[in-house]
Amino acid sequence: MLDAASRLFYERGVQAVGMDALREAAGVSLKRIYGLYPSKEALVEAALIAREQGVLAELSSRSGAAAAPAQQILALFDLLGEWFVAPGYRGCAYLNAFGELGESAPRVAGVVRRHKRAWRDLLAERVAEAGGSPRLADQLALLINGAMTSAALGDPRAVAADARAVAEVLLQQGISGP
């Protein structure tokens, strides 16, 4: 159910996906869906939480594979570049959901904020290990969120390359040592 919901919400948008489409895609009855998720907001929240586990695991794995902390951060930008060119890339699922629902769905907004904090916290850990300041982590998080949106609207390869290049400059200026 959550995989189908996550896929449909990402492909079509939260508002455009009706419960009948979800029922058909998941192969379950409406009664079962509403038994598990009493509202569409609850289903969106659960789908984002389920998606988050995979995203954060991939981020940790990718950034942890590089030796030097600065390289760990750049590895995240390499991963973004892979995401941007993947078929069907439509930007950040979390920002998309927030863009559609905003504060009218406070539980979804909470999941989005927590997810973005998790990204920022991972960056903050890597930046601190590299000798940089929390401000640098904020700047990199801003760059990542902007790149996610820009890649959905423009040339994803160019956006990925530009974002990585800007990250390199920020890291060169913001850390003490290689």
UniProtKB/TrEMBL annotation:
Name this polypeptide is given: TetR/AcrR family transcriptional regulator
SUPFAM superfamilies: Homeodomain-like (SSF46689), Tetracyclin repressor-like, C-terminal domain (SSF48498)
HTH tetR-type domain residues: 1-55
Keyword Disulfide bond: no
PANTHER family on file: HTH-TYPE TRANSCRIPTIONAL REGULATOR RUTR, HTH-TYPE TRANSCRIPTIONAL REPRESSOR BDCR
Keywords: DNA-binding
Location of the DNA-binding region in this protein: 18-37
